[in-house]
């Protein structure tokens, strides 16, 4: 049986670190995943109301296809400024493209936002939303250890009718391949089964990482729109969203990281009902640090290994979503 890495965090994938910055007064925050180098990356958007920055630069047909950092943030459209702050902090450190001897380093920092503007935090910020400063703080605080729950991008999140949050999980595969997921869970859908207590993700739990609760022996028929979701009470485009990053230390290509991002969306669908609604901005970023080499030949063998890595990333994301809500409630 596969086991999590020593931290059970996405930072069990060598070459990445995570930092959080939280504004408790505003009830919002920012999470930044930093890369030790500009790693191969991709993104896949499935939600009907996304808010993003620098997604196209990761497309396989475009020039760069790499990222220096990723930003997950609250604040809806205002939160996009967090990527400006993170990019400024990275550039000062000399991180990014250097196209000539003149001018600053140019970091590639894809970002995605969730909507947390309707909570009880003080949003009377006038012309100075807090997100640029939070982005700088999160980028500068990145490390191997970080907290989960109501922190960073998960500070003001809701998961259906309960508190959402920040979650993470990892798996160690054979031959030294590591896989991990990081998520800011703010879905319109519910993470719970009909009893309102058992996570949809229960079958994927390792140990008691999100409480160890098993479903009841007798179950009612499942509702397409569970009572614990917000679909019964609020229909607002862009009002929700699950933001995720999956990572591996395998030397995947840009096309292969795209497939990993696509397959990882299954992890959202297993943990949340309904997922990818018109009201969510669900997105999965994928990054490969290339610390572990996969064979190139024969091609069917490599394709099978990529599929296994992507499936593990999907499982990590399922667990990370449940951990986000579990830790936020503690």
Automatic annotation (TrEMBL):
<dbReference type="InterPro" id="IPR016117">
    <property type="entry name" value="ArgJ-like_dom_sf"/>
</dbReference>
<protein>
    <submittedName>
        <fullName>Peptidase T4</fullName>
    </submittedName>
</protein>
<dbReference type="InterPro" id="IPR005321">
    <property type="entry name" value="Peptidase_S58_DmpA"/>
</dbReference>
<dbReference type="GO" id="GO:0004177">
    <property type="term" value="F:aminopeptidase activity"/>
</dbReference>
<comment type="similarity">
    <text>Belongs to the peptidase S58 family.</text>
</comment>
<dbReference type="Pfam" id="PF03576">
    <property type="entry name" value="Peptidase_S58"/>
</dbReference>
């Amino acid at each position: 049986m596969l086991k999590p890495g020593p931290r059970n965090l996405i930072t069990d994938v060598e070459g990445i670190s995570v930092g959080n910055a939280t504004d408790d007064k505003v009830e919002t925050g920012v999470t930044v995943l930093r890369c030790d180098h500009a790693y191969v990356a991709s993104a896949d958007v499935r939600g009907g109301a996304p808010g993003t920055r620098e997604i196209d630069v990761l497309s396989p047909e475009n020039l760069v296809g790499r990222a220096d950092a990723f930003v997950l943030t609250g604040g809806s459209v205002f939160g996009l400024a967090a990527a400006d702050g993170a990019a400024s902090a990275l550039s000062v450190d000399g991180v990014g493209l250097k196209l000539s001897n003149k001018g600053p380093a140019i970091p590639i920092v894809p970002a995605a936002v969730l909507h947390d503007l309707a909570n009880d935090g003080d949003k009377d910020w006038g012309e100075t939303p807090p997100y640029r400063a939070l982005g700088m703080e999160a980028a500068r605080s990145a490390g191997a250890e970080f907290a989960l729950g109501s922190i960073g991008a998960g500070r003001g999140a809701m998961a259906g009718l309960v508190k959402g949050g920040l979650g993470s999980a990892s798996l160690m595969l054979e031959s030294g391949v590591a896989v991990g997921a990081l998520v800011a869970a703010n879905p319109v859908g519910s993470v719970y089964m009909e009893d309102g207590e058992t996570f949809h993700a229960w079958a994927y739990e390792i140990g008691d990482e999100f409480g160890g609760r098993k479903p009841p022996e007798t179950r009612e028929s499942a509702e397409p729109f569970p009572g614990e979701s917000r679909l019964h009470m609020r229909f607002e485009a862009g009002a929700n969203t699950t933001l995720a990053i999956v990572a591996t230390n395998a030397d995947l290509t840009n096309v292969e990281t795209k497939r990993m991002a696509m397959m990882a969306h299954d992890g959202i669908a297993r943990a949340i009902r309904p997922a990818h609604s018109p009201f969510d901005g669900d997105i999965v970023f994928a990054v490969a640090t290339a610390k572990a080499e996969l064979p190139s030949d024969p091609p069917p063998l490599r394709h099978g290994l990529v599929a296994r890595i992507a499936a593990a990333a999907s499982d990590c994301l399922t667990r990370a979503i449940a951990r986000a809500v579990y830790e936020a409630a503690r």
